[in-house]
Amino acid sequence: MCGIIGVVGASDTLDVLLEGLERLEYRGYDSAGVALVRPGETWRRRAAAGVESVAALRVACADAPGDARTGIGHTRWATHGAPEAVNAHPHLDCTGRVAVIHNGIIENHAAVREELEARGHHFASVTDSEVLAHLVEESRAAGLDLLDAVRASLAVVHGAFAVAAVDADEPEVIVAARRVSPLIVGTAPGVSYLASDVPAILGRATTFYAVNDDEVVRLGPEGFRAVDLEGSPIRLRQLAIDWDLETAEKGGHDDFLSKEIAEQPEALRATLADRRRRDGAITFDELRIDDDELVAVRRVVLVAAGTSHHAALVAKYAIERWARLSVEVDIASEYRYRDPIVEIGTLVIAVSQSGETIDTIQAAREARRRGARVVAVSNIVDSSLAREADAVIYTRAGLEVSVASTKAFVTQVAALELLALRLAQLRATLPASDVEALFLGLRAVADQVAATLARHDAVRDVAATLAGARDFFFLGRHVGFPTALEGALKLKELTYRHAEGYPAGELKHGPLALIEPGVVVVAVTTDPALHAKMLSNLAEVKARGATVVAVATDDDDSVEAVADFVLRVPATEPLFTPMVDIVVLQLFAYDTARLLGRNVDRPRNLAKTVTVE
Ligand code: F6R
Q1: Pocket of ligand 1 contains residue 305 by CB under 6 Å
Q2: Which residues on neighbouring strands pair with residue 331, listed in sequence order?
Q3: Can you tell me the mean pLDDT for 335-352?
Q4: Among 7, 123, 135, 274, which is least packed, fewest CB within 10 Å?
Q5: Is-contact 162 152, C-beta < 8 A?
Q6: CA 286 to CA 270: how far, in whole Å?
Q7: CA 523 to chain CA centroid, nearest Å
Q8: 61 included as an active-site residue
């Protein structure tokens, strides 16, 4: 996710910007840029050198004007357009005087860009963000001041944004606004700041304010004034910040893992934004594969490792159900060594958060060598996997720092289910009204995840009671099975306790022999169609002395008969349940690990990216 900083009224403007961008490093970025404003002149430099981008930018700024008192800076995490300098922010308008930085996604950028181009605007990048610079330019040309020009521009765009704009004709002003993407304002005597996160301006600003959705702020050296989108004055809420830098980087959370678990609603919204055209067709800007090729698909093979493999298992149920295509899921490290069959019409989907997992890259290579078309699903733009694949879909989860994958899982499931709906549209295997309802349902999952996160206290109580247990079985049926696998993986890697995920129906075929007092069985019971069967499986383990924890929907009043503890979640469409249900299992693993004193961000023996076989 991109980082934003701005300052007006400073004597060391460039230092403020570069220091702020360095401090935003933990958000992850692939390019960076700044714009400095003096009367009549906007000076810009950008660099795209991966994690070295801010260092490269510092070098590129050697000839920066020393007397600029206003500036904006940005670290970019690519979503639209490759991570190249030309796509890095700030973006300029046609006159080169207006500069804009943006975090978020402009959903209707394609239509807006078309209209702007028809009116003679020239675009320099392929980003969604650049439309904002040209929209501001038009309003300025029509005589609006920068504040009103930004307001007018925001009336045209849909989507998520934290945006800041400067103009050489108002050299001591920054106008910033927010919808969804984070933005704060800070002040100190004679200087005003804005940033996506507190760390960027910690130690510089003395007072901090929160900008809420649909609020616009005009910053000058003397302070700021805020208005709503209609231009009516509003007051910003002051924030009580007494964090040190490390706490600030974690957004006030104790660790990156809890921050990333909490970011899941935002990550889901970003992944699903901008995915449907006006005619209802689901679309992936970045896919690089045309509809004819997708129509020709006869069989789907998913390859992935670890958590990504569990997301792929969920996708099997969705693609088979909605698109009526036969789907196989393979563990990436097994795929290439088993002489796989690739027939004409085989589509291979390689799923990897990092896009650097060697097993998954090798599986994708092997599939291509045998003639398959390969689509990568990755969180990192231009990752090795994304570059090697024929096509790519990006999950826009933002940087995942913690070794244990959380927001990657929910966004992978969302992206893969979106692809399943696209395949269903192209193959006409679902009525348009069903696709529409499912698409809207998928977009609503972010709110259900947020509602689930709000119940953390109830999960913490159960974790505290069971923290001494040493053996856990996670059970589920249908998509509850991959959810159980993922819940078990989270518990074992975070707590070092023995945890196994099983299809509930398989229990009687062996593992039931291990059930005895002291063993904890965690069961996913949220699918109404399989509820009765799950409950009878739970009765079997309870009869043998296990302690039962059920993940159950709010309206389920029969589960308590067989469960010692119930973790409640909002009900959703059965194929969406993994994204909601996993949240309580993530929290359960997290809380247990904390109680056991584990390092939740860096579990022993594990690496975030596995680049050896
Ligand atoms: C578990 C975890 C790992 C990764 C696996 C694949 O929490 O993080 O199991 O899911 O190493 O990584 P990616 O998705 O980067 O290919």
Answers
A1: yes
A2: 304
A3: 94
A4: 123
A5: no
A6: 14
A7: 27
A8: no
Q: Percent of the chain beyond pLDDT 70?
A: 99
- Give the confidence band of 25 by pLDDT, cuts at 50, 70, 90: confident
CA of 399 to the centre of ligand 1 (A): 13
- Domains recognised in the chain with CATH numbers: 3-249 (3.60.20.10), 259-444 (3.40.50.10490), 455-595 (3.40.50.10490)
Task: Verify whether ligand 1 is closer than 6 Å to residue 395 (CB atom).
Answer: no
405 Cβ inside 6 Å of ligand 1: yes
DSSP 36: E
Using the predicted structure, report yes or no on whether residue 180 has a pLDDT greater than 80: no
CA distance 305 to 303: 7
Instruction: Dig out the tokens for 441 from the structure.
Output: 């349902």
| Parallel, antiparallel or unpaired: strands 91-92 and 70-76 | unpaired
pLDDT tens-digit map of 444-481: 999 999 999 999 999 999 999 999 999 999 999 999 99
Q: Which of 533, 577, 575, 579 lies closest to 552 in space, CA to CA?
A: 577
Strands ordered across the beta sheet of 70-76: 41-47, 31-38, 70-76, 3-8, 191-195, 184-188, 207-210, 237-239
Catalytic hit among 94, 533, 542, 608: 608
Our answer on whether the CB atom of 362 is closer than 6 Å to any ligand 1 atom is: no
In the numeric block, which tokens belong to residue 608? 């975030």
Predicted structure pTM score: 0.81
Buried b or exposed e, range 219-247, using 16+ CB within 10 angstroms: bebeebebbebeeeeeebeeeebebeeeb
